[in-house]
Amino acid sequence: MTYDIDGLVAKDKDHLWHHLTQHSNFKTSDPLIIVEGEGLRVRDVNGKEYVDALSGGVWSVNVGYGEKRIVDAVSKQIMKMCYFAGSAGTVPTIELADSIVKKMKGMSRVYLSPSGSEANEKAFKMVRQRAALKFDGKKHKILYRDRDYHGTTISALSAGGQEERKMQYGPYTPGFVKFDHCCCYRCPFDKEYGSCEIECAKTVEELILQEGADTVGGVIVEPITAGGGVLAPVPEYLPMIREICDKYDVWLIIDEVVCGLGRTGDWFGYQHYNIVPDIVTTAKGLASSYAPLAATITTEAVFNEFLSDPSDKVSYFRDISTYGGCAGAAAAGVANIAVIEDDKLVENSKTVGAYLLDQLNNKLSSHKNVGEIRGLGLFAGVELVVDRDSKEPMPEGKLVEIVGDCMKNGVIVGRTNRSLPNLNNTLTLCPALIATTADIDLIVEAVVQGVHTVLGS
């Protein structure tokens, strides 16, 4: 297809407000306009092809582009029944709920919405309503972890551990309290794994007691911190958090918006740690972004907290999400889960993800500016430092240059936006779960070349 490139660029610059973008940059350069994609590759309006190692730029197109089975399922469903409010069931919403919980031992109820931010808002509202119903409103505080990200709405930002995303958007929703991150490489307790007592988990109990156990109702964490640097906690960490939450009757919320649906080499990231959360939120890979779709998934015990006599008009979960009733989006979710299962993409994520980490380690771990390489499944980060001894974070501008060099060479990679002090600067990789070892070779080659070009050998 032929495009009016100049016309599209002009309309883009004149009218489209891009996400996470300083538009003054477009005075000297044109915006990236993507027009088509197939498999792991996308093509821009100028015809240049890229290997997408970011799954749509925000770790979300888990099954790759042009997946006909999902497209056909959505088309068929919206012709038959496009929408009905979530106060009623439709065939795809029912089938989606069933498909999800079959992958999640111990979870049983699914509340649908259109975005990860909204899914987390539902979880927060459940904690707050439970506090009102059972604890006279006192047990309303929600603890969140430094470096984790839970969304862009005001309450989701209030629970966000990435301060640069929160700047200038306050005041925030009260009742959210931060605890320390779990990155061993930059341990906030100056300990080393193997000789520590997992202080990063113990601090949660200390904070609950400090705030007052009768005031804390929830703890929210990502199973593997995504935008904060691809940080997988040690094996003992989440079981300890689970035990602490049980001890003080606190709901454990696991944010699987990024990690869910095969990204880490299991269906959900928390499953690597052999725990059962009270609430799980997920989005992005739930429909591989073929439609806006998210879910707040709970145990039966959480669901039962909101059961009451029908004459009680206020004790049920009085929430609605307009687009939680989109039957086409739910059909996309059902088809997406089937594709992941039928094509064994969780298994592929595990095996090809291991190859990705091996290749990164083989070709970059000895570089003078590589502090740590980490990840799980098709989800990896390369933390860059000015000096390996001091661990001084690499200036953000250098990461911008590396990402740009990769783009020039036809590979799209990401970076954490870490311009504030004491935060890491990390290159991020999360190609679609369909990635092959040949794809990984191309991606790693581009990253290695970018690092060497910008930082030297």
Write the layout of secondary structure elements.
Blueprint: H1 5-15, E1 34-38, E2 41-44, E3 49-52, H2 55-59, H3 68-80, H4 91-101, E4 109-113, H5 116-134, E5 141-145, H6 154-158, H7 163-166, E6 176-179, H8 199-211, E7 216-221, H9 237-247, E8 251-255, E9 279-282, E10 294-298, H10 300-304, H11 327-342, H12 345-364, E11 370-375, E12 380-387, E13 392-393, H13 396-408, E14 411-412, E15 414-415, E16 425-429, H14 437-455
Parallel strand pairs: 3-14, 5-6, 5-7, 7-8, 8-9
Antiparallel strand pairs: 1-2, 2-3, 4-10, 9-10, 11-12, 12-13, 12-16, 15-16
Describe what this molecule looks like in 3D:
This protein has 457 residues and is α/β, with parallel strands linked by helices. The chain is built from 14 helices and 16 strands. It has 2 domains: 32-63 and 344-455, Aspartate Aminotransferase, domain 1; 69-342, Type I PLP-dependent aspartate aminotransferase-like (Major domain) (Aspartate Aminotransferase, domain 2), CATH 3.40.640.10. Helix 4 runs parallel beside helix 11, helix 12 (345-364) packs parallel to helix 14 (437-455) and helix 13 (396-408) packs across helix 14 (437-455).
